[in-house]
Write a structure and sequence with these properties.
The complex is a heterodimer of chains A (274) and B (321). Chain A is mainly α. Chain A has 13 helices and two strands; from the N terminus they run H-E-E-H-H-H-H-H-H-H-H-H-H-H-H. Chain B has eight helices and 17 strands.
């Protein structure tokens, strides 16, 4: 037996217990009938899956995809210049990288609450604007899609910056010199050399941001209010207020299936995922 | 500027944070020449090349290309192209894609620049043929041998017909057998296309065998400029004399080992070492003063260590500084 096997065993057991077992439970639940006070009962049924085709849920899925896509695109647009800046800042690289991951020192929940304090009607932003007499009535900064996207971009930007940084840092600077030497202006060099060579980092970052954004419920719950129902909130509701565990399970499976399809679509031929 | 000088450096200096890389260098490079910058690593030759290409800005001095001052222009506005030491081929593009790269940034008439039969299409085909890579046009750089990569780097640069082609030790990544063959090919190519070459190397044999003119550099400064013959036979500084092949220093004059003869009469010395090198034999001799003299002799002559011999040389082979 290879030496690495005994060391891998704890991880393998942990993965089996924390990933595969819950997944199996979800599959079983999704095929059962809802209990009167939560929980699940027999008989077996596929009704939880046929209900997914209700257009009400289709709208929520599309909205969730849209918000996740916008958040991912914004992370890319904001993260790329930042990653490039860090990759080219020589000895200060490590300092900047630790600043990027600094927010992880506090819980995501607390950081999202902090945004509520900033954005609400009596929050810091509105108070300052009112004190400066720039506005009379508070701006509706909280409880809309914009606030959700802001929260997602804020929360997941590091997951975009880190893989982008990893590819940019490895990029041979003489390739950029060669492009300029052959007449490419900085923008042409970016489009024709830097971006194509960073494609693996862009794909990895996009996946790392898009997938959790798609399943988010905390950000949309706190910053979106009751108006912004995303897939994550829908699933959460089934297990809490609606007490419809089987339907919640089938919704989660649908979300997972779609995310998997997207991951495989994003994978290029002959290339590893991430 | 006289029209025959395509590139001029006027009192160019470059300071980096801790050291002066190039110190007050003035150079004139004739159009169509194969011009080498020769010197040990760290002598500033690559910095000069990078200043001409536009990757570094001179701290002081001027660079003129074809009657235009270029030292403040970005690289993409200078009509010079570079063959990088590592070749710097774009790994995501094919051989053809690499070669076409620069053509796409040139002002072109019409939009069908790569249509079959167009001027640019023919140029790509022509350059591919010149570097014998027609069969590999759709390969990626990672699928090529070292020699093929070097030819792609060359093709990618010469297709733009630069006023000066800058070559940064382009042979150093090749294995020694190939290097000698490529020397001749490079020289032929330069004559055929007529582009001025500014060739940076630390290999004196390379510089001597290929160049029309050589500028020898040391510690950021220019030591001597001249034809290979002048540089080798009439070095003006001790550094140049020693850097271009071995040199014996006897009574204040320099004598190359191949100019030393073993004769029946002359100065006495004791043979201390004999190295057989096939086409000739290298012998080391000790003078009474303890100094060592090196000589090259015909391989058929048998000398042994400990033997006392006499040697001499012709006065016209002496190097006086």
């Amino acid at each position: 037996m290879k030496l690495r096997n005994p060391f891998l065993a704890p991880t393998a057991i942990l993965m089996a217990i924390t990933m595969l077992a819950p997944l199996a439970i979800i599959v079983v639940y999704s095929l059962l009938t809802r209990g009167a006070y939560g929980g699940v009962e027999l008989p077996w049924t596929i009704e939880n899956f046929t209900r997914l085709w209700d257009p009400v849920y289709g709208v929520i899925f599309v909205r969730s995809f849209w918000i996740a896509a916008v958040a991912t695109a914004l992370c890319l647009v904001l993260g790329f210049p930042l990653a490039m800046f860090i990759a080219r800042s020589g000895p200060r690289k490590n300092l900047y990288l630790s600043l990027v991951i600094l927010p992880f020192w506090t819980s995501f929940l607390i950081r999202t609450y902090a945004w509520m304090f900033l954005l609400r009607d009596t929050g810091i932003v509105n108070s300052i604007l009112q004190a400066l007499r720039i506005i009379r009535e508070p701006l509706p900064l909280l409880y809309n899609d914009g606030a959700v996207i802001l929260g997602l971009v804020y929360g997941f930007l590091p997951f975009m910056v880190l893989p982008l940084y990893a590819t940019l840092e490895r990029l041979d600077p003489s390739l950029l010199e060669a492009a300029a030497d052959l007449g490419a202006r900085p923008w042409d060099t970016l489009v024709r050399v830097t971006l194509p060579l960073c494609a693996p980092g862009i794909r990895a970052g996009a996946i790392l941001v898009f997938v959790p954004c798609l399943g988010t419920y905390l950000t949309s719950d706190l910053l979106g209010g009751s108006k912004t129902v995303l897939i994550g909130n829908l699933v959460q509701n089934q297990f809490t207020a609606s007490r419809d565990w089987p339907f919640g399970a089938s919704l989660s499976l649908a979300l997972m299936a779609i995310a998997m399809v997207l991951l495989f679509a994003a994978r290029r031929r002959g290339e590893e995922l991430l | 500027m006289p029209p025959e000088m395509v590139l001029q450096l006027r009192r160019v200096s470059k300071d980096f944070a801790t050291q002066r890389a190039v110190a007050n260098v003035s150079l004139e490079i004739p159009r169509g020449a194969f011009f080498s910058l020769l010197g040990p690593s760290g002598c500033g030759k690559t910095t000069i090349l990078r200043m001409v290409a536009g990757f570094e800005t001179p701290t002081s001095g001027e660079i003129w290309l074809n009657g235009q001052r270029i030292d403040a222009l970005p690289p993409y506005q200078r009509n010079v192209n570079t063959v990088f030491q590592s070749y710097a081929l774009f790994p995501h593009l094919t051989v053809q894609g690499n070669i076409e790269f620069g053509l796409r940034h040139r002002p072109v008439k019409g939009s069908d620049d790569f249509a079959k039969g167009s001027d640019d299409f023919n140029r790509v085909a022509d350059v591919l043929k010149q570097v014998r890579l027609e069969a590999k046009a759709s390969r990626r750089p990672s699928e090529l041998s070292g020699g093929e990569r070097q030819r792609v780097a060359l093709a990618r640069a010469i297709i733009l017909r630069p006023d000066v082609l800058l070559l940064d030790e382009p042979l150093s990544a090749l294995d020694p057998q190939l290097r000698k063959q490529v020397r001749g090919e490079l020289r032929d190519l330069q004559r055929r296309v007529g582009v001025t070459f500014l060739f940076v190397t630390h290999d004196q044999e390379e510089a001597l065998s290929m160049s029309d003119q050589i500028a020898v550099m040391n510690a950021g400064a220019l030591e001597q400029v001249g034809t290979p013959r002048e540089i080798y036979a009439r070095p003006r500084t001790r550094f140049v004399a020693d850097f271009l092949g071995a040199m014996n220093w006897i009574d204040g004059v320099g004598v190359r080992p191949e100019a030393v003869y073993i004769t029946p009469e002359g100065r006495k010395a004791v043979v201390t070492g004999v190295t057989y090198l096939g086409s000739f034999c290298h012998i080391a001799m000790a003078l009474e003063s303890g100094e060592t003299i090196h000589a090259q002799v015909a391989p058929g002559l048998a000398y042994t260590a400990g033997q006392t011999v006499c040697f001499t040389w012709n006065r016209e082979d002496e190097v006086r500084l």
